[in-house]
Design a protein that fits this description.
alpha+beta, 12% strand, 594 residues, 3-stranded antiparallel sheet, 3-stranded mixed sheet, 15 helices
Length: 594
């Protein structure tokens, strides 16, 4: 379907999912663990960034707004008067606290950025890319911070607590009184309190609706999403179908969680995301479209409304607004453009040295069984553009839920009925359409003035002579760079095979995080482990993944003896039957060097 090629907006660099259900399996822990102070004493590998660039990536706002910053710091736990979101507690949820700095004056965790409303001056807290694409790996007394690595955090658990904290503050008079005094300080008076209460009621209802829109069916386990994965696709759809159109019952359940993809190589690929739905073509505008879709899904506040005679953009029949920060998005993309993969043999690493003979033998196996899909990108050429290999579901045979989500989730179109999907192009919106068409239309509307301004200023580079429609694709001929596609839709359904640079730092594996380490990946699919702990950052250098006998949540492939849809660890059987165990260890040794 053509509009899926525009899903450059679909899954940007990170997104959110929500779930009303509570509860997480937890292993027995050392009772002294909670008493340890929060630490950010990390070792940094050379990934092409200096300290300033790293800090800027962590805290540059993209315009996402969860709630006012003053509220975030004032919320109490539902059962007592203690502060809800302390650095220690956020670390328990998998986020990475760091000290205060010029770019992080509130001392928030990595990726929790402050966004200032230009009209009111009010500060908001929201996510930026680094919240979901930064991780720490522990090994033999050292902790390595890996920029761009998939997080092991639990966003669903975090957002559950946001909702519970808001509801408790709204419903408990004593809590609200303390909240009001903290937030309003010397501006506390009867009128200000009434205004604050109304705003609190509004945000609490909206937060509960976000949960309801994506809520899992009753028979799903409470920890289905949990640590280290998220259903980004469905939540971007819901940002359009539910919140942008103000249709509360127009959402789809978030039943397709995926492991967060790593960021290095993202900018260089022609398409992005597990299903290849997000296009980087043309290079001049594709990433901005993609990232605008991402922030729409992560508290970007997209609204599509009847202008009632007052059009924001005269050429558009509807008004499109959001809090997205386009300058911030472009700055973040420029950082990602220069991000390099972490190296196992980095001078700052204390990881075990690789065996050159095993590496040489493993390179032969890689060429025979892996390189047809996972092309080799030399470490000194990571800025090279490449065309991703899309592998049809019938070939890869991995869990189909994510690949099918964009094709099967439907939603009512409301006031969009009769419009073209991309405003100037695409199918005409019927009363019910694939849910993704709604945020596609929304991002097209948001970026219409941006794209027109870029064209007017002559900033389209190789695309400036081509006619650019609202979806950001060239209709004046192919301008793709050598070795790239022109951004056409990937075969449906399919999954993206990307270069494996830095793969050692990105466990668990497969798109849905259902395989804990590289050794399990090379087993015959039916012999792979059926459950393992997720959430530990302690590296297992032999099997190449994180240790699986402890963690924060027990991932289970099956439910009641049957493979759980979304959790299958089958498929990707390339070489698993042909290679001996010795040859598999050789291949793993080679993979460490990428």
């Amino acid at each position: 379907m053509r509009y899926l090629s525009f899903v450059a907006l679909l899954l940007g660099l990170f997104t959110v999912a929500c779930n009303t259900e509570q509860g997480r399996d937890t292993p027995t822990e050392d009772p002294t663990e909670k008493e340890k102070p929060v630490s950010s004493d990390w070792t940094y590998l050379d990934q092409g960034w200096n300290e300033t660039e790293r800090d800027s990536f962590w805290f540059t706002s993209q315009g996402a707004r969860i709630m006012p910053y003053a509220w975030f710091t004032a919320l109490e736990t539902p059962s007592d008067t203690l502060q809800l979101f302390t650095p220690r507690h956020l670390e328990d949820l998998g986020y990475l606290p760091v000290p205060e700095s010029a770019s992080n004056p509130g001392g928030l965790p990595i990726g929790f950025a402050l966004d200032k409303d230009q009209a009111t001056g009010e500060g908001f807290v929201g996510f930026t890319c680094a919240a979901c694409h930064t991780n720490v790996i522990d090994y033999a007394g050292k902790s390595f911070l890996i920029d761009g690595a998939p997080t092991l955090s639990d966003f669903v658990g975090f957002y559950d607590e946001v909702v519970l904290g808001l509801q408790a503050t709204r419903d408990n008079a004593a809590k609200f009184e303390r909240f009001a005094h903290t937030v309003l300080a010397d501006k506390y008076d009867e009128a200000a309190v009434a205004e604050l209460k109304a705003a609190l009621n509004e945000l609490t209802e909206a937060a509960a609706l976000r949960q309801k829109a994506a809520a899992l069916p009753d028979h799903y386990p409470t920890d289905f999403t949990s640590y280290g994965r998220l259903d980004a696709f469905t939540n971007i759809e819901n940002a359009g179908s539910v919140f942008a159109l103000n249709l509360p019952d127009n959402g789809n359940p978030a039943i397709a969680p995926v492991s967060y993809p790593f960021l290095w190589g993202t900018h260089q690929s022609d398409v992005v995301q597990w299903n290849g739905s997000a296009s980087n073509i043309p290079r001049s505008i594709g990433p901005l479209i993609r990232n605008t879709g991402e922030v729409v899904g992560v508290f970007g506040g997209l609204k599509i409304s009847d202008p009632k005679g007052k059009r924001i953009v005269p050429q558009l029949p509807l008004n499109y607004t959001s809090t997205a920060d386009f300058a911030g998005l472009e700055a973040l993309e420029n950082f990602v453009k220069t991000l390099e993969s972490p190296r196992w043999d980095d001078p700052n690493s204390n990881l075990p040295a690789v065996d050159p003979q095993l590496v040489a033998a493993g390179a032969v196996h890689f060429k025979k069984y892996c390189q047809g899909c996972h092309q080799l990108i030399p470490s000194d050429r990571q800025d090279s553009l490449y065309k991703a290999k899309m592998v049809p579901l019938a070939t890869i045979k991995t869990d189909p839920v994510t690949a099918m989500a964009a094709l099967t989730n439907m939603a009512a179109t409301g006031i969009l009925q009769g419009m073209k999907v991309e405003i100037l192009d695409g199918p005409v919106m019927q009363d019910t359409m694939p849910a993704i068409t709604i945020p596609v239309n929304g991002v097209a509307g948001l970026l219409a003035p941006v794209i027109l301004a870029k064209l007017k200023a002559g900033k389209e580079g190789e695309d400036k002579h081509a006619e650019i429609n609202m979806q950001g694709h060239s209709r004046g001929g192919s301008h793709a760079q050598e070795g790239e596609s022109s951004g056409d839709a990937a075969p449906d359904p399919s999954y993206k095979a990307r270069p494996l640079n830095g793969i050692w730092a990105t466990a668990p594996y497969l798109h849905n995080g259902s395989v804990p380490n590289l050794w399990e990946m090379l087993k015959k699919p039916e012999e792979r482990v059926q459950e393992f702990w997720v959430g530990s950052r302690e590296l297992d250098p032999k099997n190449v993944g994180f240790v699986t006998d402890k963690g924060k949540n027990l991932f289970k492939v099956t439910l009641n003896g049957e493979i759980m849809p979304g959790n299958s660890n089958l498929g990707h059987d390339f070489g698993t039957e042909q290679l001996t165990d010795t040859e598999k260890w050789e291949l793993i040794e080679f993979l460490k060097t990428l």
